[in-house]
Amino acid sequence: MRTVWCLIDYCAYRSSLWLPTITINLRWLGGSHDSIPSGLLAGRFGLIVICFPTSRHVRTPEEGWCPKAAAKLQPSDFSAKSTTLSDWDPTLKEATTTRTAATYGNIVNMATEDARYRTSSQFRLWSFTPAHLSSLRAENNHLAKAAISARLQSSVPPVDHLPEFLTSEEELSLLNFYTVELLRAAAFLELPTDIRATAAVFLRRFYITNSIMTYPPTELLKTCLFFGCKSEGYFMRLSKFAEKFPNTSGEVVLAAEYVLCQGIRFAFDVRHPFRALEGAIMELRRLGDFDAKRVDRAHGRTREILKFSPLVTDAYFHYTPSQIMLAALSMADEGLVQRMLRDAFAGQGEAEKENVWSVIQSARELLEREPPERMTEYWGSQETNKSMKPLIKKLKKCRDPDRVDLVALQKARRQQAEQKKPKPTLKDDTAIFGGPVDDREAKRRKTAANGDDPFGPALG
Fold it and tell me: Membrane-spanning residues where (predicted)?
């Protein structure tokens, strides 16, 4: 195993889908033949270890692909001129590296953040335009009304009058209300920030493909919280979790778990903007243009915004994590974002920069509808609770009668699965002797015919 040691002098922060390049200065420190696990950059300055087998094909800009080049090349073999990373690998068009001295060949597959985000389930399955998302909710509301109406009319005895159903706008209002309730419950349980955000995203994803009238949000809320702990690798005992809620057992929490997985299309990975924020703050501190206290204040305020505003709106469905982060940071301190954009788009013209800024502004307008202060000033007020009571009362009258009790529904489905009769087999030649002979019966007869000798009767 060859090991290359490089000192990272400067690593520019890169936000997905908007910053075109990443720049790294590498300074050669020397190599060894020890098998050392690869390391990652920690902080602004750090030591990165790049390990690769000595027999691996390594390429230089001058030589192309070179078998066993790792055993032959030395630092002095490389010129000190600036070389783009695309010279090393043509597929990496967007990433460039400026180096005072090159390292050994196939350094690292520096796939850009936007390319990696496009491969995520969040982008492929859960990214919508506002118009598309609105149409999905309207269609889902219409299908739920039709299904519930059919069940009520076919019930015994049938209902005389159908209830007044929720509109898609009323469902969205209830969804926002129960999202805030989920965040309150997560705070009561003292769950980490990532788990709170993941659970909230799960709840909002589920009610894009399912109606609040079909599955009770009070039960799904608990399931989302517990399953969010699972998906983020945070262990919490089911009995301990259930006892935190009144009239709740572990069976109640797990009853909707598989339904939840189906509703979110088994997409358990949620990309949050918190890591992007830490990278942006590191970059601002590196620039050194601003007072440290100003950056720290913006950092704290942005985290407060990200913990609430994107989760109670549809920001996760319309924007990338880095765009959400920049929108929240602009709410905290617009000057910091402008400075980052000016540095990122230096020499690239104003048109591209303005396009990026317009996206950030549209995301900011969405987040400003639900600033973090509304958590207590609006959603926690008596006026809001009073205004939500008619909708909750209306929901109780029009919900699906077959799915009110998810525990009973799960038990009924399990019993149906256990009572399923095996499919009849096709008749064959052995049916004339009373049915097909199974493998065990045939083996028993063969053993009996051969006697006690495991190798069978004597030949001849």
Answer: none
